[in-house]
User: Fold RNase adapter RapZ from Spartinivicinus marinus.
Amino acid sequence: MKLIIISGRSGSGKSTGLHVLEDQGYYCIDNMPAGLLPAFVDEMEKEPLYDKAAISIDARNFSQDLRRFPSIMNALREQKIEAEIIYLDAEHATLLKRFSETRRKHPLSSQQCSLDEAIKKEKEVLEPIARLADLTIDTSQLSLHELRDTISKRVARKQHSSMALLFQSFGFKKGIPIDADYVFDVRCLPNPYWVTHLRQYSGLDEPVKEFLGSQQQVLDMFDDIKRFVERWLPCFEANNRSYITIALGCTGGHHRSVYISEKLATYFREKWPNVQVRHRELP
Assistant:
């Protein structure tokens, strides 16, 4: 059977992720006690109608079950259960803002524990799960639609035997993505922003593509990153990695990083079965 475990801090989008998987035909359970996982898997294997399941585990679990979560997962994998852990998170300030705007009560907050303290405590409590995550998704700058799209493309539709490869462009002035496995800085390349008639376009538009495609530095950078990724992807797959996120950043995340990300995605789609591209700073 196929088992996906969704976890992460409150307010990061776990319920949304679970709903997406339910729409994709997964048998879903919200907030399952981690200690019941082995028994749940045993029951699921007896039921031929359901060959894939998704459960969410959050900080409301018994503390002893969260501490022994790594040993629970080891036992499941010894049973040859295909299990993946998806961990959703967001920046501390973003989580504070979300709870303040919705006026929801954080599950760990109380008269003795403020919202700020609860969010920090939750990160500590979920650390045993976060460390084992196959994929970490930073939802700080994702809309509800973008989060649903990300879960659908990267998790629900991922082919069983292939590693999902994501090229993500971003702007350094808005911070480095916390869910990136590799980060490449392309700010040294010629910047279309300083060419007045190109400023209004992005790396998806022909005028910018023609400008960057004519620069030898850009072609050299693309070739170096391409060869690096091509060299090491098989090693990650051989090590049973399910997801790789390669982030490429320029100053604003609109021109150079977008162009290089698209060019890499196009190249690797001819060689790799599961390739996606995302531009964090574009609408």
